[in-house]
Amino acid sequence: MTMILGLTGGIATGKSTVAKMFIEKDIPVIDTDLISRSLLNKGTDAYYEIVKSFSSEILLTNLDINRKKLARKIFSNPQKRQILNDIVHPRVKEIVDNEISKYEELGNNIIVIDVPLLFETNYQDIVDKTIVVYTTKTQQMNRLVSRDNITKEYAQMKINAQMSLSEKVDLADYVINNSFSILDTKRDFNKILEDLGV
Question: The sheet that has 3-9: what strands, in order across it?
């Protein structure tokens, strides 16, 4: 029986670092962020629906979606964020289901789904266990400002668009504290694998 793990965390808490640790152990990771991004590519059904909903002002001159402009619109407006989620999330889930089936057929005992909005979009219903990667609020803010080269105000808007980290931690089966060194993160990661009998 294949075990499906849901990996999540807040924005800029280090989820990608943990995802890489699973990949290094030859455990497949289905990255819903990558899937979402591919759905915004020119010519997809989602692309046309997004342009129809947000108008051509979100397009670059080559007609690609200006992702930064779209992000600013959705992070400053919960209704617009919901419109985008309604377009993208059902399509992402369909692709995730297909990927799970593929990895099950290949005989993988564990499959990880990397989902930033795991609890917000009810992915906990399709996974067996959840892992939350967290860090302190200060570190999260500093990492996000530095990583995305944005203001603290805009970073706070992005953080506020997600369920709070403390709520995610309360809902998680496992927690990885990514506030300290990579060695500490790795230790938490290895403890989880040990507990799962990997």
Answer: 29-31, 110-114, 3-9, 129-134, 174-177
CA angle 174, 130, 17 (to 5 degrees): 75
Cβ pair 2, 107 in contact under 8 A: no
Cα–Cα distance measured from residue 123 to residue 129, given in angstroms and rounded to the nearest whole number: 10
Cα(46)–Cα(98) distance, integer angstroms: 18
**pLDDT tens series, the chain, 198 aa:** 899 999 999 999 999 999 999 999 999 999 999 999 999 999 999 999 999 999 999 999 999 999 999 999 999 899 999 999 999 999 999 999 999 999 999 999 999 999 999 999 999 999 999 999 999 999 999 999 999 999 999 999 999 999 999 999 999 999 999 999 999 999 999 999 999 988
How far is residue 165's CA from residue 132's CA, in Å, rounded to a whole number? 9
Q: Where are the beta strands (DSSP E) in the chain?
A: 3-9, 29-31, 110-114, 129-134, 174-177
